[in-house]
Amino acid sequence: MRVRSVFTATIVLWALIRGAAGAEPEPAVVSRTTASGLRIVACHDPEAPVAAIRVLVRAGVADEGRSPGIARVTAWALLGANESQSRESVAREIDAIGGSVTVDIGPDYTAIGCNTTAQAFEHAAWVLGLALRGAEFDSRSLQEARSAALEVARRERSDAYEAAYLAVRQALHDASPYRLPFGGDPVVISSLPRDAVVAFHRSHYVPANVVVAVYGCVPVQRCMESVERSFGDLRGRPAPRPRWLPGADSRRAYEPPRSEIIVTGKSALIALGVRAPAVSSPDYAAFALASAILGQGKASRLYRRTREALGIGYSVGALYPALEGEGHMMAHIEVSSGRPPEDLARAERVLVEAVRSMTAAPPSEAEVERARRLLSGQWLVGRQRAAERALQMARALFYGVGSKMDEDLPAALRAVTVQDVERVARRYLSRHVIVVARPASPSP
Amino acid sequence: MIYLLVAATLALAHPLALGEGAQSATATRVLPNGLKVVVRARTGLPIVALDLWVLAGTGMETAGEEGAAHFVEHLLFRGTATRASGESDAAVEALGGVLNAGTTRDGAHVYTTVPSSGLDEALEVIADMAMRPLLRDADVDLERGVILDEVAAAASNPDRAAIEGLMASLYPGHGYGRPLLGSPEALRRLDAATVRSFHARCWSPRGAVLVLVGNVDAGRAIASAERVFGGWGPTPASQEPPLPASLSLNPAEDLPASDQVVLGWAYRADALGGRDRLTLDALAAVAGAAPGGRLRRELASMALPGYPVVEARQLRGGGVLSVLVGCDRQRVGDVRAAVERVMGALAKQECSGEEIRHAAQWLASCALFDKETVEGEARSLATAELLRLSGASSPVADPDGGVSAADVHALSRRLLDAAHSAHVVVPLARSGRQR
What we know:
The complex is a heterodimer of chains A (444) and B (435). Chain A is α+β, with helices and mostly antiparallel strands and 444 residues long. Chain A has 15 helices and 12 strands. Chains A and B meet through helix 2, helix 4, helix 10, strand 11 and helix 12 of A and helix 3, strand 5, helix 5 and helix 13 of B.
């Protein structure tokens, strides 16, 4: 394969964790953009026992337009037959990789990943590249993808956590694509024609929409050559018209402010949602700390007030996903639906009080410091996994936020003051929505 | 998950099975009180995993103690002689870690991963929880609700329900056959005195292992562990309850009234040696745990969505091979016939050398991925100690005496028959989260 390569190579020195015993310099990250617009980023870590490839494609839920679920069906059918192999051959090729292939669909992108060994790396890159550029979307693969996507879509409406998360997003976002069901629409999915999938693939799986990241035990030069060989002739069609970026929800009041939904299972879930800053916002780090003070870890306010003090709720926490546009945070308490109704009412009251306390009783220096250390520590622990490193590198390029997004996170957290946390708490936590998801009949 | 863990455990026992990666060296010391300390020093990120395991799983529960093992695990967080409820968590979170605990059929463990500079403090927190928990009456009452909430959440997982049904049939009346979390009825009955008695009997340094893996100095880490845990007084060794002699008969099955179901099969093997355990892993891989395994191919050829979950579950008292398949209600007959056909063929005839080689490659990959994190390697080492696998046998498919097709066939003949097997069918609810 011929790849014209007048590319700029950027070397970013990864942040060092200051003061940590035995810290060693981080391996260098090298990125490159091919003539067709494909972006590649690689990092050789000779101490990593494995290698991870992560491919991000701007083909997420936000790109689905009038076909909610099409991104998932397309991505899940990629690994069927392709221009040169039957689906059975592809299945055998995947077996031979020796690791695993994963496909995840998020609001901003589709992520395709493979964890593999040094020996099987070229093979893995080749399998992924072939799937991306040459998927045939044969009828059996499409049917299987539709069935699996249908299950996800149904679960999003029946599982307590997922259904509550959807209801929270729909109440918070009036125009942003984050209000869409991440699992898609069952009616759309079950009747999605092949032509629509092929058209979606052709318009979104184009070089300018794709980031490939490799982290692990394979030298950078080998990574670059292999990825360019495998993905380089991804068809250079023009990228689709830029979508309307999230971030401009206009509604002042959240609607409805409180709702109840019926789900299956034996648990009830009480969720509280607020809008929250985008990953590129200057408030991102401060709000991440506020979210951790509220609901991350067993020393968080929410955990201590519910599970610790009242013995209510096994799963208690706060979710603050890093998103391209203005996003959201959801705090929750999950309890047995067999509890008496007054326990559920009490859990809801305490959840609201915990969030209100963030403005009524601003966080102390000690609370901010606990949250800062917790997030920095978990960031460090997460960097052990090649897959996590590859994903972070890919996201940094994808979002165009460079080192701000991941490498500098500890420094960004260190720069946040107690006053910053207090300010973002006042700004983002002053109004909220509540969703109660519970089974129709309580469990015995 | 347990399968991957054990596969990695077994492979980690063999340096030849490991790939390149972070350099490491292992040091071991058995303290006078019986606690075994294993330190694997690695280069790389400045973090360390701490994992303390004690022989206090559900397998140690006696009659009347159902649910006690898991209950104790929860209560460790509700205060010690020197830390109020929640202070242990706060101390570890201030170091940058998250403190957690778990209960299995053989053991219970407390674990965390923290920056290396926090090793001593994290050791003190974990030692305090294991040695000096308060286990007060009021805490038992308060935590009971939390555990019942956990049981309700877990009830949404059909695979879990299937495995628990299978284990109940394989080990009737024994702790291995009880729900790991405890049944709601048992949890409501359990009192503080029973919980305290279980802790006093089973949370002992005898048979326990503390594993530290990470960027630390091994000598200094062992000295720290000795200082912190040296005062843990040994209790008389607690006897492990004997395994039931036979399985309980499967009751006649009625198909659940749901559109989809999970079908489960499990086969019990007692008294496994190190080589037998490797053979069980290899058998599971050939049967379908590994990509390209027989059941995966068989079910794919029937156009069934998804794939079977095949696991080798390693226990101190032996091992269990389990197979779970989710399918539409109308396909139950086809799936049942396919699984029985595949398992029957394994018992009838040796698998091929190619299948053994493929299984060995897959097991080696599992070990590599497990070794990627300090907590993964710590758990593998601790599990090997708990299963008494130190210095275990040869790798799968080693031409110089490794597990062979004949070994796999011999184990299949011993295991894959009605006298050693159980079968369940559970509904696959739409809300099933883990499938």
